[in-house]
Structures are given as C-alpha cells and as structure tokens.
Amino acid sequence: MARYSREQRRRAVELYERYEHSAADVIRELGYPGKGALLMWYREWLEERRTGVPSRRGERYARYTDEQKRAAVDHYLTHGRRLSRTMRRMGYPSHEVLAAWIDELAPGERVIRRGPVADGVRRMAVARLAAGGVTSRQVAAEVGVEASVVRNRVASTAARAGTGGRSSGTRQAGEEE
Hints:
This protein has nine helices and no strands. The longest helix is centred in the first third of the chain and has 17 residues. The chain has 177 residues and is mainly alpha-helical.
C-alpha cells in the first residue's frame, strides 16, 4: 500500500479544488492517488478547515514505548549480546528493529557477526590450543574468532581422529596410562 506525505496529499487536494472536483484530472496530472483516496483526503481537508484541528492520518504510531526499547537494549547488552536471545526473552521485536534500537540507543555496542571464519584461521586456532597452556577463549581472542569456533573445530578434528574430543595426551578420570 502506497503512503503519501502530508505535502503530497495537500497538493492533490488543492488540485482537486482547482480542477472543479475532477478526480480524473488530478490523477492524470500527479499519477496518484486513486479516486477513493483523493475523496477521503478532500473530506479530511474540509474537516480540518471546519475545526482547525489537523488530521493525524498518515502519522506513524509508536508500537513500542521508549521503556520497552530501553529494556530490550539493556537485555542485549547484559546477556551476551545476542539478538536472538533478547528477542526470545523479551518476546519482541524483529532482528532488524532490535538492531536499529541498539544502534540508536547504544551506538557502537552491537556485535556484528561476520561471515564464516576462514579455514586457515580455524586451523591456526586449533594448533595453538593443541600446543597447550591456553584456553579456547584465550586462543579465540588471539585470532579474533569466537571461542565456539575453536571448540567446535577441536571437537570435529578429534571425532575424525577417534579421540572423542580429547587430545592424545589427556586422560579421563579412572583411565590408566
């Protein structure tokens, strides 16, 4: 459905009056609106002239209050910066709307996920972790990826090697060397 600005509606109504209430001439000249919309705009314009109160047609209503927006942004910032987690917990809004709120209320704080991590970067992270002495979070921070990328890669590599996710030098409780 097309939306027209207040100025566009005013122009159409003025032409409607100038062309002696010929909707066809207005539509031919402007290319908008339909006859029904023009007649509705004209009735609203007459009502505005009679009462002196401007019409509120076309104004966007705020679906969410400022408090709801702030609550969603605060939840995002304090619960792991995940859009989906915040949407699930709060019950609103969409990814796009929440991202816009974050950008508006907390500029620069939104985590922007980038595409897949290059295989070479993943291999380097896994090799660093396998060398020992560091956690997956530390390695992830060093190479600029999320810790889950490192853990998932280690798990998939171990599964292919048949070690069940453990490096060859580790033991589980109760195992003998």
